[in-house]
Structure formats: C-alpha cells, structure tokens
Amino acid sequence: MPRSTPRNKKSLWSQTGPTPRLLFGAFAIAAIGVLGLTPREFFGFSVAWPYAALWGAVGWGRVGLSVRPMILLILFGLIQDVTFHAPLGCFVILNLLAYGASAAIADMFDVMNEPLVAILSPVLLFSGAFLLLWLMASTLEDHPVRVLPLFASLLTTGLAYAVLQKIFDLGRRPGELAGQVG
Amino acid sequence: MARLGRSGTKSQKRSPKRLILGVFIFAAIALVLAQSAPQIRTLFNPVRTTVGDRLGGNEGFNAWAWMTGQAKRERRIKELEAEVRNLSRYKAAAISMAERLEAYEEILNLMGEPPARGVTARVTAENDGPFAQTILANAGRAQGVEPGAVALNEGGLVGRVIQLGEYSSRILLITDFNSRVPVMGEVSGIRAILYGGRDGLGSLTDLPERDQFVEGERILTSAEGGAFPRGLIVGEVRKAGDDWRVNFSMAERDGGYVQMIPPPEIRKPMELEVEEPEIAASPAQGARQ
Description:
The structure holds 2 protein chains of 2 kinds.
Chain A: H1 12-15, H2 18-37, E1 41-42, E2 45-46, H3 52-61, H4 67-83, H5 90-108, H6 115-141, H7 148-164
Antiparallel strand pairs in A: 1-2
Helix pairs in contact in A: 2-3, 2-4, 3-4, 3-5, 4-5, 5-6, 6-7
Chain B: H1 16-34, H2 38-43, H3 45-57, H4 63-68, H5 70-108, E1 119-126, E2 134-137, E3 150-152, E4 157-164, E5 169-173, E6 181-185, E7 191-196, E8 202-205, E9 218-221, E10 233-240, E11 243-248, H6 249-252, E12 257-261, H7 283-288
Antiparallel strand pairs in B: 1-2, 1-12, 2-5, 3-4, 3-12, 4-5, 6-7, 6-9, 7-8, 8-11, 9-10, 10-11
C-alpha cells in the first residue's frame, strides 16, 4: 500500500470545485472593488486602484463560456457604471467582451501549458480592455479623457492579476466532471 | 494536460453560450446607446441615487457598538468634530474680515449677504476613472442638502451636487473637464470660465483679449450665472506658456470632508398688478363730442 507523502498531498484549493471557486473569486472582486471606493492616499500619493472585475473576466474566461460568470460580470459591470458615473452598460460591455475574448483565446491556444501564451494572453486582454474603455469614455464624454490614470490602473490590474490569478482559475471547463480532462 | 486545440471538435459546434454572450453584449450596447437620449438617461437616476445611498450614505450596523453605547458616543464625537471643523474655519475668517466688512458696509450703506447654512459630510467614495470626476458624500436630502448645492472643503470650492439621494450626494468636482465655473481674479477682476484640465490643473476660457491676470493672484467665483455664490476661493492662477492655468486650492487641503451650502437663490422680480385708472371724460373731450 503506497504511503502518501507530503508531495502528493493536494491543496484545498486544487480540490475545490468550480462553483466555490467562482463564488470566492466574486467575493474577492467585490471586496477589492468596495475597498477601492474609499479615498486611497498613502503619504500624499494617490494609488491607482485595479479594475477587479477584469480579473474575473480574464480568469473565468480561460475555461470557456458559462452563464453564471456572465451574470456576475454583468452585475459587477452595472455597479462599476454607477460608481464611476458612467452611462449604464459601459462596464458591462467591457467585462463581457474581455470574458468572451479570454474564452476565445483559450479555445484557440493551450493557455495552461504554453507559457508564452499564458503570459501574453492576459497582457493582450487587459491592454485591449483599457483601450476600449478609453475609447468608450472619450466618445461618451465628448473629449479625449486622461490616459495616465487609466494606464496606472492597467498596470496595477495586470500586476495584481499576476499574483492573484489562481483565485480566478475555475479549474474545470463548464460541465466537465472532476478528474475529467480534455 | 490536453486541452481542446485549434482542431478540436468543440470549436466546430456552435455553443448556445456564445449566443447568450452575444445577446448580453448587444443588450449592453443598446442600453448605452439608449442613454444618449436625456429622457432615458434620467430614468436611471433613481437607481443611481439608491445605489449611492447604499454605498455612501448608511453606516454599517454594529450590534456590539449598539449594545455598549459605543455607537452613540462615536456618533456624538463625529458631530462635535464636524462642528469644531466648521467653527474653526469660520473663526479664522470671521476675525480677519468681520471688522473690515462692517466698516465697508457702513461706508457703502450696503445690505450684507445672509449667512450660509450648510451641511458638513464625509467623503465616502471617490473615483478617478475615465468618466466624470465625482465624489460621494454621506449626506443627502434627509440631512438638508439641496439640489445643486455648492461643496467646499478647507481649501475652497470643491464642486457642485449633481445627484442627490436620501442619504448621499454625488458631487461633480471642479477638476472635471465638463465642469464650468465662472471665476474672476481677486486683484485684476478679470472674468473667465474655469474648467478642469487633463493634467490636474484648471484651464480658463472666455478670457478678455486685452487684459491679463496677475501672476499668482487668487481666483474666486464670480457668481455669474447664479450657480455659485460670489467670492469662494478656487485656486491660484499661473502662466504656463501662452495660457493661464489654475492650481486648485481644494486639492491642497483635502481633509476628507466637504461642506455643502445651498446654491444662491435668485428671486424673480415680483410682478405687480397695475390697475389702470378709469379715465373719466374730461370737459375738453365733452366739448369735442
């Protein structure tokens, strides 16, 4: 009888199913989003806060399309629209497009195993999302909006995602059973 | 770990989830486009104010603090702190100005401005996103804030209330590109319209062609248009190339609180009914007849 070694022990997160992972990710997005609403100045420097919903859009999209993440992203988008005083629907479009693009890239490439794609894909998705946000904001506000705060938020969103991406990995494709791969 | 690749069978099947995603995106685009009509945009205002109330208006309920009476004490301390902040600001201004003002008013035989009654509120949320630059304060209609109220902090003018909830107010900052504040130079008296620039400084438009501001002079509200009272401090003017730019005073002394005072009330002139006197036939008319 093989003795289980510490190396073979699976972490709690790896044994967690997609639904608890989705809920935990949504909670993380909501918590970081709410924190971002408070004044964020440290020693006189204002901190660019990440657009947390984009983490969910990029991370959840990596396992393919599913209705529950879409609904969560719509909810987060509407909340973002209200807090940013944007026309309702702007951030919904942004989140859903990022989600769809993430799913499309994952469908085309082996995002999990190809390191170059695994790094390039989020970079591309975040950059595209922020470019789209700038375009939408500039069009709807009738003037080119400031790029620097958006760029700072892009950096913090990307850097934080590099650290937190495991939280937004659902582990399995929708409908896929535990242990069933490919 | 084998994933479904480019040649996988999954990609050949059209998933209904793609259709759902497409429908959601299309609906969101339609929602954004529909809001280009102001009538539809205003339909969403109750939703925005309700969410604003939830985000910025209500304090969280803490059962332990309520049971021990700590909540009540903290509330009282906050009220007193707000009062002290108000009083200290007014005290400094009053001491330096009251005597002079009294003398001036006496010389001019002038009716003074009525004292402003305001509501001091904590800034509970702010965003520096790509859309309108606004902050959310935790006082609304229930606390006596009026629509279009003028927001000030220790430095000077902060902005104007553009959305009023029951317990929260959304203030459009004067640093926003879309804000327009009629201003004047304190020394030069030159009038202009101030709006937020993209670099955090204020820009001035509608300047007179010949006159110039005095470098470093204070910029005050001119009260033209009736949206802002006269004489509120906005910032200091600096020459930058060919343009005049304004350093906002409110950014230098931001204590996390704003005072919201009612917008100036411009009363319409009373229309008096003029009774036309009955013209009695004069002897001359009678003679003509």
